[in-house]
Amino acid sequence: MASKSESGGSAVVTRFAPSPTGFLHIGGARTALFNWLYARHHGGRALLRIEDTDKKRSTQEAIDAILDGLDWLGLEYDDPPIFQSDRAERHAEVAHKLLDAGHAYKCFATPEELEAMRAEQRANKQPMRYDGRWRDRDPSEAPAGASFTVRLKTPQDGQTTIHDEVQGQVSVRNEEIDDYIILRADGTPTYMLAAVVDDHDMGVTHVIRGDDHLNNAFRQLPIYRAMDQIEGDWPDPTYAHIPLIHGSDGAKLSKRHGALGVDAYRDEMGVLSDALFNYLLRLGWGHGDREEITRAEAIELFDLSGVGKSPSRFDIKKLENLNGHYIREADDAMLAELVAAQIDGEVDTALLAKAMPVLKTRAKSTHELAEGAAFLVAKRPLAMTEKAAKLLDDESRARLSVISEALARENDWTSEALEATTKSLAEELELGLGKLAQPMRAALTGTTTSPGIFDVLVLLGREEALARLDAQAA
Predict the structure, then answer these.
(1) Which neighbouring-strand residues pair with 46?
(2) Fold annotation for 1-79+243-329
(3) Taking the domains of the chain in order of start, what are their residue ranges?
(4) Alpha carbons within 13 A on the beta-carbon side of 12
(5) pLDDT at 55
(6) Cα–Cα distance between 244 and 254 in angstroms, integer?
(7) Residue ranges in the chain whose pLDDT is less than 70
(8) What is the C-alpha to C-alpha distance for residues 147 and 246, in angstroms, rounded to an integer?
(9) What is the pLDDT of residue 4?
């Protein structure tokens, strides 16, 4: 039953209804986000329905991936998820009510007859749709015991108009909608029926989904209206059909544009959930020129009037830059936990947290943070990159010995004091600071890129830093 507000009107109820045939697609995640935000903005309820009626393609692994992705994005729901497959009896019950009231009928057309019908339509270049051959026939004309489907009697005259919250007023001539099947020959419900019955029974007031479902609205409304005549209290939902996401080249988003699943952005690309939340929010919705928007602000600001009518373009570089912003703003202890999980071996998370202020200044992903932190957990003798090894020629190794001796005399092991000592040594040797810093970096980290060399010395600590320098010194 529909949820009612204290004032007596219908409270806003939205739903996200994914099919568990794979990962949580980035487009589905945005649909979930928009539904969730709309409900939260209006003080309503956000519900989740798993549309798992396709048993051949639906998997528990996919269900788990969807639930995990939604949880990671921070989209909590007001009720436990409803599984569509558990409600087949209820769907069939509604189909029989429609049948008994004359809003649906039994179709005894055989698969062969239907294929012949389609072949003729193709030959005549006609629209491919059911021709209504059993719409007005008496079931007694069918052979005894013949199997049948149940088809909805859709309106044949006039047109249906939807006042869509995103697309505006959209009309379709009723003759373009054929009498589609709502119960298969084996008695199982089709998606078109199941979705309507579930939305009604869940009290859904607003159906917010991709605009690839816009045609479905014109097929589903006749069920609402027929059941409203039969029972009452089957109001039309408010529709909002969101333009799809395209790749940077303007084509429909596909694997060639990069990762498609939410889990890939987290696991393979090192994106923070707050960053993806913010990016998906701004993908087709806007509030002035605001780019960074917190979750609390999103709930306060979000409404369907801000959703554009044109497809949005997914820009991976923009997401990476936004992720870098969120990394710089993130709590260091939280980042340390994420990075620790990406580093092999035993990790001192307290040390990682201490390192985060210098590691995260340029990082655009948690993977870059992990790469930058690798020197902290490396064991002697350090593995050297090819570029780092080239820096450690005989002359540089000799300098490392001098550097180690100078730093060993330093009592104040801070970046400021260590920098002053190293600069003083460079002047004494009549060398640019880089001639000392570059071999130091190679000896301390095994690479040619790292945080500031004096920060590296401090993070490693006196004993380990000097040991690494001595290990590479001539």
Answers:
(1) 14
(2) Rossmann fold (3.40.50)
(3) 1-79+243-329, 86-242, 330-377, 379-474
(4) 19
(5) 80
(6) 12
(7) 1-10, 255, 258-259
(8) 44
(9) 37
Q: How, if at all, do strands 238-242 and 104-107 pair?
A: unpaired
The two tokens of residue 195 are 């979705």
Supply the pLDDT for residue 285.
Answer: 95
Q: Which residue has the tokens 């709502």?
A: 182
pLDDT of residue 9: 47
State how far the Cα of 119 lies from the Cα of 125, in Å rounded to an integer.
Answer: 10
Query: Strand, coil or helix: what is 155?
Result: coil
> Of the residues 55, 255, 317, 379, which is catalytic?
255
Q: Please answer whether residues 190 and 183 qualify as being in contact, where contact means their C-beta atoms are separated by less than 8 angstroms.
A: yes
Yes or no: domain 86-242 corresponds to CATH 3.90.550.10: no
Active site residue 387: no
- Can you name the residues that pair with 171 across neighbouring β-strands? 161
Q: What CA–CA distance (Å, rounded) separates 277 from 298? A: 10
pLDDT in tens, 90-132: 999 999 999 999 999 999 999 999 999 999 999 999 999 999 9
Q: Which residue is it, tokens 């020629």?
A: 393
Q: Which two tokens stand for residue 48?
A: 């989740």
Q: How many residues does the chain have?
A: 474
**Closest to 311 measured CA to CA, from 206, 210, 168:** 210
Query: Is 255 labeled as ligand-binding?
Result: yes
**By C-alpha distance, which of 8, 179, 198 is closest to 107?**
179
* Domain 1-79+243-329 identical in fold to domain 86-242: yes
pLDDT of res. 345: 78
Distance of alpha carbon 88 from alpha carbon 145, whole angstroms: 23
| Residue 103 to residue 173: CA distance in whole angstroms | 19
Question: What does the pLDDT read at residue 254?
Answer: 74
Spell out the residues 6+ positions from residue 370 whose beta carbon is closer than 8 angstroms to its own. 270, 339, 342, 343
